[in-house]
Amino acid sequence: MFLVKFELMKIQIINGPNLNLLGVREKSIYGDSNFETYLEELRKRYPDISISYYQSNVEGEIINKIHEVGFSFDGIILNAGAYTHTSIAIADAIAAIKTPVIEVHISNVYKREEFRHHSMLAASCKGVIAGFGMDSYRLAIESVLSGK
C-alpha cells in the first residue's frame, strides 16, 4: 500500500493599513462587510486551498510577512493600502522573493485621488486587480490557481 502525501496549495492574503476597519470605515468606498466574514466565504469556496490571513498597519511587519512566506507559498495576495503609493521597501521585498504576488484593491483607485493612481508595487507584482470590491481577492485567487 502506498500513501501519497497531498499538500494543499497555500495562499497568503496580506492586508495593510486601515484594512482592519473594513465594514466600519468609509462604507461608500469599501462596503459594510468586515474582512473576516469575507475570508470565511473564501475558505468555504476554496476548501482545497490553505488560505492564510495577515493584517498589519506597520510597514516593517508587512515586509517581514512577505519574507516569511515568500519562498514557500504558492501565491501572495497583497492589499497594501496606502503603502501601495509610497513604499519602495515593500516593492523591494516583493522583488526579492520567489512567490508570485498579486496586488489588489477593493476600490477602483483610478476613480479616486490622483496620488492613488500610481503604485510603487505594481512593477514587482504578477498583476493588479482593482475596483471589484471584496471580489478582487477572489479574482486574485483564481489567477493564482490558473498559474497565469
TrEMBL record:
Annotated residues for binding of substrate: 79, 85, 92, 106-107, 116
Catalytic site positions: 30 (proton acceptor), 105 (proton donor)
EC number in record: 4.2.1.10
Enzymatic reactions: 3-dehydroquinate = 3-dehydroshikimate + H2O
Site feature (Transition state stabilizer) residues: 25
Enzymatic class: lyase
KW Glycosyltransferase (keyword) present: no
InterPro entries named among the record's database cross-references: DHquinase_II, DHquinase_II_CS, DHquinase_II_sf
Family: Belongs to the type-II 3-dehydroquinase family.
Name of the protein in its database record: 3-dehydroquinate dehydratase
Gene name, Swiss-Prot/TrEMBL: aroQ
